[in-house]
Predict the structure of VOC family protein.
Amino acid sequence: MGFHSKPTKFVGHVNIKVENLERSLTFYQEILGFDILEQSPNSAKLTTDGKTSFLSLEQPENVIPKQGRTTGLYHFAILLPKRSDLANIVVHLTEKGIRFGSSDHLVSEALYLHDPDGNEIEIYIDRDPSEWTWSGEEVAMAVDPLDFENLLSSINPSNLWKGMPKDTVMGHIHLHVSELTKTEEFYVKGLGFDVVNRFGRQALFLSTGKYHHHIGVNTWNGVGAPQPPENSVGMESFTLILPDEDAIKETVDNLQKIGVAVTEEDGRLITYDPSGNRVALAV
């Protein structure tokens, strides 16, 4: 459908900080079915297709546990290719004794769980875009109960859970922020996203290409919430994939026009939203 490929801007990679890399790798491999693409003593890139990575883990020096009531990661969301894949992982998680929540968002069906450090993970499938309801520039979303009986009817007994399907992608990211006005300016005027849903005065959902959202932001940890310490569990950064070098240049110019700096760190172009969430820009 093109929501996670060029020319759409989308979240292509998320880097998560953990307390114990080996413990986390056990979870992400045995429970979620990722493979390791690359590994160093303090970090690992995970893959589903054996060639690319959309999720990395790192163990910072002097790491401390996840801090509450701060800005940063609310959840990252893994998008599965087919509805039967979601049904299969429901069975798999249940067999493994993993607790999870669920929701029907109208545009999607989703599960929610936490890794060993409390980083929240959404695993979801999209409904066909023809089923999404738009009112002008806003798409209807909800938090309704998931119909498990209907979902599980899509299971193919000959194709049960064997790990993350190779066509799995990073569907979106949802962040805690300290306020919404400057945040909206950063993501709309700076990064070029459209607001596609406003959840009262507490959350915004943003996308390009008429997706239901590539990025969500909320103030549910409190207006004025502080940034977490650099060495705490949580999100290190997410990478925004842009169509080409011209789009990178345009985005950098737009960020500078609203007073936001872009710097190079370890070969990556890096900027920060008003709440200190680190964003890497890439082609």
